[in-house]
């Protein structure tokens, strides 16, 4: 039977692939000759930068240049297929950063360094992330406002979240919290049976199922994702492709900005390297830096904006003495592997079967549309704020990396010994629940290693330096353990995998004690890839702030930062959605327009 339809299946896939190739939207708009001057220059076409370039070029008499270090995302299947994300790690589309060796964490990682993928392509990191779409808690933004970010309270930012969205979950679309017709598609992400099993277990344990982008995020949440018709909906797809033909928008790819030209305390233009050639392009109104939480601070420092002593060390003339690169914050995750007598998780065999390929290419459905994360849960620790402000998030994983895949892709940068242990112990976990630290107390920094713009900066997150961060992660593990004990999961034979074989470094400690988990966490807890706050926003007189609440760099005219680096503090959710919101809100500030008056009116009581 297999023989009779295999060749047909292969033929169908080939025809569809050919059809897709012939019909791929063209990149001709990326090769228009550049002008010498623009009204605005946006540096970086990532989650935020793509939004800003789109919105500024809505004004037809305004000229905009968007500069991106990476290339086009078109024609690369791993960018289309949600489940392809891991194959993009450590490729030309990834900046592939590694942190400095860590003292309090990452002990089982190569040289104790954490691996930080970052997108280097149109769409930036929205093109290699896991597509989880969570805005954050309303209290995150209310706290920003309280700490001096005027105009950034929840009631101020909600209209921009709504403006951005084309929301596709019928269940919640009319709740008042969601938008239709925006550029960014957000859809329900469910491929396996695991989501509903986790939901039933969570409900049994007393968690309500909620819309975590709605009124109250505490509880179990069906994952919402930046996926449209089974395709990754990066900001390149969402915000750039539909408007690329605009005459007043130029996009320069494969162009690394090496410096912002500053004259008389004003941004006058940029220097960039394209095709091995140095170019200067001047600006009439503003330079907008949207290069992300690593590259934005690096570029500012290379341009003479940063901690004075640090810049002087590299003989960089100082234009503004600001705490650029400080206040680095990041989320961390630690997975609890669970054995269960079910095989719902997606593995490599399922992901590459002919049936899966056909389902994907014919209908845009099936395993390949999985973002790996189909559900999440928000709660709070014993020290947390019980009035609806979470400090623990659980991520429920729906894929399963066998040891060969772990070795090949090594997303956690495990050292050789740990990889060997993983292979030897051959953990057959059919489920993984991950405890996530969402309000870290530890603070890190990004500093220059040299004045060569092509050198990676020194990234030191100081992970888990504050003991409280470990305690919260342990409490998250306890929440996950309680789910394992529910009748729902018991029915599937769920039990925790014994971790001694995986992590012999901790096996001398009493199993399941807090000290045991602390040991595991300090060895193997890893980044959720959410660095923020390295060009922190704050009041004009706030010594920790790099930009004011209009996102203007303090002391330099015509220069803003618009990306995840301006976040006052890291929000409670995964940070792509708030990066897009920041792009939307900043665009109104720059244009001097209020495009959300009607949405604000409708949402004023939410
Ligand atoms: C593996 C992974 C998984 C993730 N999963 C999720 C998730 O599921 N959900 C979620 O919400 N978040 C997730 N994130 C995080 C999220 O995607 C990012 O925080 C977000 O995309 C950041 O947006 P940004 O605009 O600040 O920066 P970016 O999107 O990184 O954009 C910066 C852009 O600037 C360009 N650039 C940098 N320097 C220069 C220069 N000198 N000259 C020209 N261009 C330059 C870069 O190439 C890039 O395109 C994940 C991140 C990673 C790495
Ligand atoms: C580029 O320059 C040409 C010639 O001056 C002008 O017509 C065009 O509008 C400019 N385009 C942009 C995007 O600045
Ligand atoms: C797993 O489930 C199958 C089918 O439900 C059952 O036959 C088998 O005994 C179970 N095995 C274990 C170890 O529980
Ligand atoms: C808890 O959250 C409420 C609501 O935002 C806030 O008023 C209160 O100050 C918070 N308490 C603490 C200890 O953070
Ligand atoms: C892993 O790789 C080894 C050697 O390449 C191979 O023999 C084995 O079948 C692979 N295991 C899986 C689960 O694919």
UniProtKB/TrEMBL annotation:
Signal peptide per UniProt: none
Transmembrane segments: 6-22
Molecular function terms from GO: flavin adenine dinucleotide binding; oxidoreductase activity, acting on CH-OH group of donors
Domain Glucose-methanol-choline oxidoreductase N-terminal: 119-142, 292-306
Family as reported in the entry's similarity comment: Belongs to the GMC oxidoreductase family.
Superkingdom in the source lineage: Eukaryota
Name this polypeptide is given: Glucose dehydrogenase [FAD, quinone]
Keywords associated with the record: FAD, Flavoprotein, Membrane, Transmembrane, Transmembrane helix
Annotated FAD binding sites: 121, 125, 129-132, 257
Cofactor: FAD
Species in which this protein is naturally found: Mytilus coruscus
């Amino acid at each position: 039977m297999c023989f009779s339809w295999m060749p047909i299946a292969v033929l169908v896939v080939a025809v569809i692939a050919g059809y897709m190739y012939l019909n791929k939207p063209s990149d001709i708009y990326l090769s228009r000759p550049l002008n010498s001057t623009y009204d605005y220059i946006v540096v970086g076409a990532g989650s935020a930068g793509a939004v800003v370039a789109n919105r500024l070029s809505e004004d037809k008499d305004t000229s905009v240049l968007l500069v991106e270090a990476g290339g086009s995302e078109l024609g690369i299947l791993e960018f289309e297929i949600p489940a392809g994300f891991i194959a993009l790690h450590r490729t030309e589309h990834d900046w592939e950063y590694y942190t400095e060796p860590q003292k309090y964490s990452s002990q089982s990682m190569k040289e104790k360094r954490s691996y930080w993928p970052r997108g280097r392509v149109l769409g930036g990191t929205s093109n290699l992330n896991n597509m989880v779409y969570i805005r954050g808690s309303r209290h995150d933004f209310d706290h920003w406002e309280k700490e001096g970010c005027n105009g950034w309270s929840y009631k101020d930012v909600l209209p921009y979240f709504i403006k951005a969205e084309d929301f596709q979950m019928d269940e919640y679309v009319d709740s008042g919290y969601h938008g239709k017709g925006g550029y960014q598609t957000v859809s329900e992400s469910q491929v396996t049976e695991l989501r509903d099993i986790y939901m039933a277990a969570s409900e049994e344990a007393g968690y309500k199922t909620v819309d975590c982008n709605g009124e109250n995020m505490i509880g179990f949440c069906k994952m919402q994702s930046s996926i449209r018709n089974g395709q990754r909906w990066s900001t390149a797809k969402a915000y750039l492709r539909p408007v690329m033909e605009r005459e007043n928008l130029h996009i320069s790819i494969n162009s690394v900005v090496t410096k912002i030209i500053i004259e008389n305390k004003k941004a006058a233009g940029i220097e960039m390297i394209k095709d091995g050639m140095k170019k200067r392009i001047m600006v009439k109104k503003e330079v907008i830096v949207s290069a992300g939480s690593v590259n934005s601070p690096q570029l500012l420092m290379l341009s003479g904006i940063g901690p004075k002593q640090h810049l002087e060390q590299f003989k960089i003339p100082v234009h503004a003495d600001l705490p650029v690169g400080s206040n680095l914050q990041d989320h961390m995750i630690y997975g609890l592997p669970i054995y269960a007598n079910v095989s719902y998780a997606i593995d490599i065999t399922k992901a590459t079967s002919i049936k899966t390929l056909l389902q994907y290419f014919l209908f845009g459905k099936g395993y390949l549309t999985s973002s790996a994360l189909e559900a999440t849960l928000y709660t709070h620790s014993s020290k947390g704020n019980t009035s609806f402000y979470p400090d623990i998030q659980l991520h429920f994983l729906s894929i399963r990396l066998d040891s060969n895949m772990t070795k090949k892709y090594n997303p956690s940068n495990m050292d050789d010994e740990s990889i060997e242990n993983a292979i030897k112990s051959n953990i057959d976990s059919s489920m993984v629940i991950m405890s996530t630290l969402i309000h870290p107390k530890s603070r890190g920094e990004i500093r220059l290693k040299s004045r060569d713009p092509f050198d990676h900066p020194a990234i030191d997150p100081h992970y888990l330096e504050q003991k409280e961060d470990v305690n919260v992660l342990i409490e998250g593990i306890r929440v996950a353990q309680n789910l394992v004990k529910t009748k729902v999961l018991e029915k599937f034979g769920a039990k925790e995998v014994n971790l001694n074989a995986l992590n012999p470094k901790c096996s001398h400690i009493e199993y399941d004690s807090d000290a045991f988990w602390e040991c595991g966490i300090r060895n193997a807890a890893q980044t959720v890839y959410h660095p923020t706050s390295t060009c922190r926003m704050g009041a004009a007189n706030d010594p920790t702030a790099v930009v004011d609440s209009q996102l203007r760099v303090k002391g330099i005219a015509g220069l803003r930062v618009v990306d995840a680096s301006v976040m006052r503090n890291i929000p409670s959710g995964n940070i792509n959605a708030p990066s897009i919101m920041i792009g939307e809100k900043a665009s109104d500030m720059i244009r001097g327009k209020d495009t959300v008056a009607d949405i604000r009116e409708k949402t004023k009581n939410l």
